[in-house]
Amino acid sequence: MSSGPDAPSGARIAERARTVVPGGVNSGQRSIPGLTDLVVTGTGGARFRTADGREFTDFHAAFGPPLLGHNDPEVARAAAEAGARIGHMGVGVTEGEVQLAEQLVELIPSVEKVLLTSTGSEATFHALRVSRAATGRRLVVKFQGCYHGWHDSVSLNVISAPEKVGSHDPISTGILPEVLDATLVLPFNDSEAVRRAFAEHGHDIAAVIVEPVPHNVGALLPHQEFLTTLREETTRAGSVLVFDEVITGFRHDLGGWQSICGVTPDLTTLGKAIANGAPVGAIGGRADLMDLFSTRPGAPAFFAGTYNGHPSVVAAALATLRKLREEPVHAHVYRLGNRVRAELTALYARLGVPAVVTGHGSVFVSYFMPGPETPRTYDDLLANDASLFVGYRRKLLDHGLFELPLNLKRSHISYAHTDADVDRLLEGTEAAVKAVLAEGGARDLENASTMGGAVN
């Protein structure tokens, strides 16, 4: 990294970006209030560096993919070796693709056949398309607080304002009303609402799609009875049950959340931790559903993607799965995650700050609200003190710690994090929370919540 008076600063590079890139970033959740000049120049393990010469311990982890830590050497080596050996042809198949598919079929309970995509959004898009193709039905059910990607059928009701809960709350303009009308939005963890929806609309429900743990609003842990109800109602109605495990898959267990809860969906979508940050997703499930895709000549549901199964990406996924299977990755991140959640809970109690610390495995999040009950629905999260939530994360930057300073966003532990990192996190959090409380909360919360309703 260059240094000295002529070195490119974050502000100069960011200004160049804003000249040629709308907003200066390539995803709508990367322009963060107070961090609009953030330019990342290097990553490694549990750290990242910026153009201004600062280094942070990273508990954001790119929304979750690098479970092993940034730039894991074995994964990086495997991807580089594959790239030196074979380029992307876009025709036929490589042996690596076959090996990866075989492992996914072996590991994920619901997966009998699998197709690779480049992103999780593509995977969920195809899951809904093939569900409609299989059933000939129109309606899709999703849940308030769940995010399933950028496509129109599911781009609604994620982080909604209180007055928008209970009605359609699209996160983008430009969506046809008739597309939104074909999506039913229900409250998460509400089995009775599911039963009512199926009693009224079951004959026309093509699919139910759900994050088994809604991590896009932090961590709403599911009631077992709720997931069981989804399975029972979709089976009874002949609808397709889709588990969106783009976040939970591999990060929480090699078999995904479905192996933890024992509920097997019809289709599963995967992404993020599957390749430790390389751009890959997957859709897999029952063979009769997967055989409807046009990768099988003559099948009716079109499926394509120029970069699907890119050799370097596949090699990264294979190396990631190899390490997850052979090394105590989950034992390590679960131990640190349990420690973080327990010690943060004690910290807030000592400070007299109403808070509920929740999560699972390597994921943790502190909601600033009265306890002790763990929030289970999006309505519960409306009590979160956003000014304290966002404010303490902004103050963490002063201590070289990075948790994404956006409302309701979860944090992650990787295999590269250590107990010393957790010590620093606890010390920094105490100082940051005290500082925000002394100031009376964070100011300037505009744009500090993403995936909210669209502004017309």
TrEMBL record:
GO MF term set: pyridoxal phosphate binding; transaminase activity
Stretches the record annotates as Disordered: 1-28
Cofactor(s) it depends on: pyridoxal 5'-phosphate
Keyword Transferase: yes
A Pfam family this chain is assigned to: Aminotran_3
InterPro entries per record: Aminotrans_3 (IPR005814), Aminotrans_3_PPA_site (IPR049704), PyrdxlP-dep_Trfase (IPR015424), PyrdxlP-dep_Trfase_major (IPR015421), PyrdxlP-dep_Trfase_small (IPR015422)
Assigned keywords, A-Z: Aminotransferase, Pyridoxal phosphate, Transferase
PROSITE patterns for this protein: AA_TRANSFER_CLASS_3
Family: Belongs to the class-III pyridoxal-phosphate-dependent aminotransferase family.
Name the UniProt record assigns to this protein: Aspartate aminotransferase family protein
Organism: Streptomyces tabacisoli
